[in-house]
Predict the 3D structure of the following.
Amino acid sequence: MPHTPPPTPTATLVEQVFARIDSGRDDLVALTRELVRIPTINPPGDAYRVCAEALGERLRRRGFEVRYLHAEGAPGDDPRHPRLNVLARREGVRPGPCVHFNGHIDVVEPGAGWSVDPFAGTVRDGRLYGRGACDMKGGIAAAVIAVEGLLAAGIALPGAVEVSGTVDEETGGFAGVGWMAEQGLFSRPRVDHVIIPEPLNVDGICLGHRGVWWAEVAFTGRIAHGSMPFLGVSAIRAAAAFLAKVERELLPALGRRLTQMPVIPPGARASTLNVNAIHGGVAEGMGGYPPALVADRCRLVLDRRFLIEERLEDVKAEIMALLDAVAREWPGIDYQVREIMTFLPTLTAADAPVVQALAFAVQAVLGRPAALVASPGTYDQKHIARIGHLHDCVAYGPGILELAHQPDEYVVVEDMVNAAKVMALAALRLYRLVG
Ligand SMILES: [Zn+2]
């Protein structure tokens, strides 16, 4: 006769939480739809208050203490587009760690190419479509359902649990997680472990990201009549000379530099440079054509993504060296570099408690090992690491990485349910309620 061992108390606890999450499936879909239907497009930062309140009032009804945190005077903050974050906290019954779930409520503009209404939250074939469904309102909803599952199962949590919805991640996060970190809201002893349900695939735990150096390079030359270009110095030709050096010298060198960080997709394991924009010549006037002039200005925007093995000084110096070479070869050309945004790479240790807890939970829920990955682009973890000095932070969520910012973005409902279970089980591990 087959022998079935009696359930252990621990198994019963986990089973209860999972049963709550399974029975909350429709609620999870409804919450995601509710959030997707609030068009929190950034820039400019629309409807932040509506979205923050939708999350905050729901959690208030679950016994959370809810604060709305207005990043007054932060970049982008104005009366029409207040930078409003929500932070919900529920104290535990005895001392213990604080587990924090953070998601950004802003989405990028939908752009063209949609076959469904990007703000309807259409559900079809087990997928929920909409701008932000994947990045990352589906992740926020999964985290909320995970936390509610823990509470509904009647578990007396130690420490505290926090859920935050923050703004402006898509434009750097300065008025969101960055601002909150400056207020001490992402530091010990207030917070111990942070999970950000960004879309890095339901079995992926994202340890960190590459660095970014964004800069504008402005070349200036000398204006002259277009019929006598030899009397001027063309800033466009100087910019072209610079780009030729980038093609010939820099890009091949960057392509050979590979990081040990597990960045996905694998193409992003190399160091990269993108030219985001080029604008040259004087403004185009009548008929949409510029006048007959030698261009005395040309501007490039560079997006340099660098590796944890590279130093920021070197990243800048190798571009400066190419610019200096152009200036030497082109008498009459001057250039200026303006830094737009710089973030250093960040990487949480693979043996950090939050990583171990999530890896255990992914294996338990999905029956396969978690993939430890890193992100090609930056996300709010940088602020928690650099400003909050909290290094037990990762991204883990249900969305599929490649769908972020795409038309017909969607999140798989089954992935949201599984991610909610993973997050709930990981929290139980971090609270030391399961062995
Ligand atoms: Zn995101």
Summary: The pocket of zinc ion is lined by residues 104, 135-136, 169, 198, 379 (CB under 6 Å). The longest helix spans residues 235-256. Residues 9-209+345-430 form a domain with the Aminopeptidase fold (CATH 3.40.630.10). The CA atoms of residues 260 and 319 lie 23 Å apart.
